[in-house]
């Protein structure tokens, strides 16, 4: 090939190739292999292998002392297990208990800041399948960080998951005690509601557009425990529902959950004035049940919300509500 | 700007852009949630390069080499691939508005990825192939829609692209709302363009595909220059138009599939970068293609650095950043040129 003057192609190609190969070299060498950690000091405890709720291997050396939580429900569970001083990092949405707000933030559950997590030197990161992404877990493990993933899909599994987490974190006694109390309260409630037809409810996740919950979510399971049955029957988890369909199903109660009780109140005031909604029997009769957002978090506090909802839907099955001065039953969970 | 292209000018331009890229990469390595000083970083890089890097604190090493660098590498690959694909589509379709995003190729690749995530979730390496197949199918559809009387009509083509893009986006939305796979959760984020999760395919393979795809397109660079003045004219000048079209079309689809499979739909890069490069260095494809690859890498690394630091620890999608930063720069350069 003659290359005297006007054939600039080969040098450019070569240049491109050199840059590309130079850039790729480190990538080839580190691809796939986990980050190497420095040599272990002799005094460190032996590694012990655990399985998380997805069946993945989790190797721990001793009881984790610095734990990063990747979901509000995990943060609540850790505090409920009395492990507050071991919570080293939480997500931007971890707002309960209030002390969680004082912990370093690692970003949102879907897209946390890996750099921030690594900088906190956690010996364990706890994720949950319903909120976090598999990619995040893989990325953290590649960086040499142990990740334990929970996967509760029913209220019973929330309790079992809490007990298991207690064992993993060396809080066996507290986990056992907490789980036993929750089980007892759920059994109590089931006993009370036994033989009574469940209320047909429409759970309002969102109003514009109208989004409810499908029968396969743990939220639907929480509704069942509270003596309610969602009128929504679809395979989707978070279906968009037409107002016509809500009218056709004619639910006995509308159920709302929110962080602040005043949010659903303004929402309801607005719904009373809107075409469609205003002709719902539940709206005309004022059959609204408002519970805390704990109902949508798979953490021990969900039992508080379930009891609260059951009380609102079946007032005749419960003793008259306690006066504000008396101890409300919701404080038994020990999460406050 | 109608200076003739000499090997010297080509090398100088590429070396200059390469220097800027290195600088941008260095500062991208420096900035992040954890603050690292320029001297610390320089010392660390020097020691690592000379094989004495083990003295650094372990999480320092982890953050620079295992968190920031793979992400920067991915940003460079995506930026180069999208820009070269954009420049190629602009020549192939003889339309300055052509780019993988506008033409629906990104949506096609996105749909392909989602379908493989639904049907072959347990095979992570299947996603890039799904993205590639989607990109090729979308390009074919747009190409057919743009045909009128045996020739490519640029209005029909652009409209065809926009229609294909919105149709495929509608399909994606349909799948995302009806299918309850928990794996699709991050998809909304991914559709806006996101580099925060590492690629399932080792970066070395991505670089290989990038080099092969861009290299194939580069072999047609001189012909593309002629093709820009019209197919008939190019044919009269001895260009094998059919072969050039196939090579460029396949190459650009591979590059788009590559970029979308690892980063989702990062918009604007394929449109903006080739135009910027054209404004700065002229439109000779022999220079435009390598300069565009380097420019794309620079732009996406910059955008992703901003995306992960502006509101840290919360991470923004890089696609939002490329549009936010890119569009004003583009408008400024365009107006300055008109003035």
Describe this structure in words.
The complex is a heterodimer of chains A (about 325) and B (about 350). Chain A is an alpha/beta fold and about 325 residues long. Chain A has two domains: about 45-150, Nitrogenase molybdenum iron protein domain (Rossmann fold); about 195-335, Rossmann fold (3-Layer(aba) Sandwich). Helices cover about 35% and strands about 15% of the residues of chain A. Chain A is built from eleven helices and ten strands. Chain A has helices spanning about 10-30, 70-80, 115-120, 135-140, 155-170, 170-195, 220-225, 245-250, 260-270, 280-285, 300-315; strands at about 45-50, 55-60, 65-70, 85-90, 125-130, 145-150, 200-205, 230, 255-260, 290. In chain A, the strands form three sheets. Chain A has a four-stranded parallel sheet with strand order 4-3-5-6, with helices on both faces. A four-stranded parallel sheet of chain A has the order 8-7-9-10, sandwiched between helices. In chain A, helix 5 packs antiparallel against helix 6 (about 170-195). The radius of gyration of chain A is 26 Å and the shape is globular. Chain B has one domain (about 5-339): ABC transporter involved in vitamin B12 uptake, BtuC, CATH 1.10.3470. Chain B contains 14 helices and two strands. Chain B has helices at about 5-30, 40-50, 60-90, 105-120, 125-145, 155-180, 185-190, 205-220, 220-225, 230-235, 240-265, 270-280, 285-310, 320-339, and strands at about 145-150, 150. Chain B has a two-stranded antiparallel ribbon. In chain B, helix 4 runs parallel beside helix 6 (about 155-180) and helix 13 packs across helix 14 (about 320-339). The two termini of chain B are about 15 Å apart. The interface between A and B is large, with 56 and 59 residues.
């Amino acid at each position: 090939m003659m290359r005297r003057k006007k054939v600039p192609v080969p040098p450019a190609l070569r240049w491109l190739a050199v840059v590309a190969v130079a850039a790729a070299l480190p990538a080839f060498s580190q691809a796939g292999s986990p980050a190497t950690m420095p040599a272990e000091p002799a005094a460190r405890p032996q590694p012990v292998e655990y399985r998380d709720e997805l069946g993945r291997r989790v190797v721990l050396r001793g009881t984790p002392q610095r734990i990063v939580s990747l979901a509000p429900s995990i943060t609540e569970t850790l505090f409920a297990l009395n492990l507050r001083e071991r919570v080293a990092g939480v997500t931007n949405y971890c707002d309960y208990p209030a002390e969680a707000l004082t912990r370093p933030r690692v970003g949102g559950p879907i897209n946390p800041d890996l750099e921030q997590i690594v900088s906190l030197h956690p010996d364990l990161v706890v994720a949950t399948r319903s909120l976090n992404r598999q990619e995040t877990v893989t990325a953290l493990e590649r960086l040499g960080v142990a990740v334990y993933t929970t996967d509760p899909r029913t209220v019973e599994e929330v309790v079992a998951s809490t007990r298991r987490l207690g064992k993993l974190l060396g809080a066996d006694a507290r986990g056992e005690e907490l789980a036993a109390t929750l089980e007892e309260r759920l059994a109590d409630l089931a006993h009370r509601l036994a033989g009574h037809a469940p209320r047909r409810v429409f759970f309002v996740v969102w109003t514009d557009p109208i989004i409810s919950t499908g029968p396969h979510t743990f939220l639907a399971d929480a509704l069942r425990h509270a003596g309610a049955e969602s009128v929504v029957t679809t395979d989707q988890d978070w279906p968009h529902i037409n107002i016509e369909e809500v009218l056709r199903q004619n639910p006995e109660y509308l159920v709302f959950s929110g962080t602040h009780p005043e949010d659903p109140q303004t929402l309801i005031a607005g719904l009373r004035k809107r075409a469609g909604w205003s002709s719902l029997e539940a709206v005309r009769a004022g059959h609204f049940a408002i519970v805390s957002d704990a109902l949508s978090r798979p953490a021990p506090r969900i039992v508080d919300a379930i009891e609260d909802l059951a009380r609102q839907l079946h007032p005749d099955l419960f003793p008259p509500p306690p006066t504000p001065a008396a101890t409300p039953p919701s404080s038994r969970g020990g999460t406050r | 700007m109608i200076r003739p292209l000499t090997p010297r000018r080509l090398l100088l331009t590429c070396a200059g852009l390469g220097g800027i890229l290195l600088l941008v990469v260095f500062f991208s390595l420096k900035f992040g949630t954890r603050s690292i000083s320029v001297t610390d970083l320089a010392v660390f890089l020097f020691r690592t390069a000379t094989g004495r890097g083990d003295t650094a604190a372990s999480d320092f090493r982890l953050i620079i080499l295992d968190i920031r660098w793979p992400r920067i590498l991915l940003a460079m690959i995506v930026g180069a691939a999208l820009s070269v694909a954009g420049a190629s589509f602009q020549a192939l379709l003889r339309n300055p508005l052509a780019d993988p995003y506008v033409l629906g190729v990104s949506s096609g690749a996105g749909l392909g990825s989602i379908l493989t995530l639904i049907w072959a979730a347990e095979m992570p390496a299947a996603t890039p192939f799904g993205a590639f197949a989607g990109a090729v199918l979308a390009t074919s559809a747009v190409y057919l829609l743009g045909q009128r009387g045996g020739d490519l009509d640029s209005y029909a083509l652009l409209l065809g692209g926009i229609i294909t893009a919105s149709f495929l986006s509608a399909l994606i939305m349909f799948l995302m709302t009806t299918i309850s796979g928990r794996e699709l959760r991050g998809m909304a984020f991914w559709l806006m363009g996101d580099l925060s999760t590492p690629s399932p395919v080792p970066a070395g393979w991505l670089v290989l595909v990038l080099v092969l795809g861009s290299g194939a397109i580069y072999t047609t660079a001189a012909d593309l220059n002629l093709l820009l003045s019209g197919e008939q004219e190019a044919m009269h000048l001895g260009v094998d138009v059919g072969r050039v079209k196939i090579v460029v079309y396949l190459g650009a689809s591979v590059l788009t599939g590559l970029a979308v499979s690892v980063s989702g739909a990062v918009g604007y890069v394929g449109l903006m970068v080739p135009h910027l490069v054209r404004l700065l260095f002229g439109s000779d494809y022999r220079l435009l293609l390598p300069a565009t690859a380097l420019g794309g890498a620079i732009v996406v690394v910059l955008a992703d650095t901003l995306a992960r630091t502006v509101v840290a620890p919360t991470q923004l999608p890089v696609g939002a950043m490329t549009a936010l930063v890119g569009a004003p720069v583009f408008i400024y350069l365009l107006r300055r040129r008109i003035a």
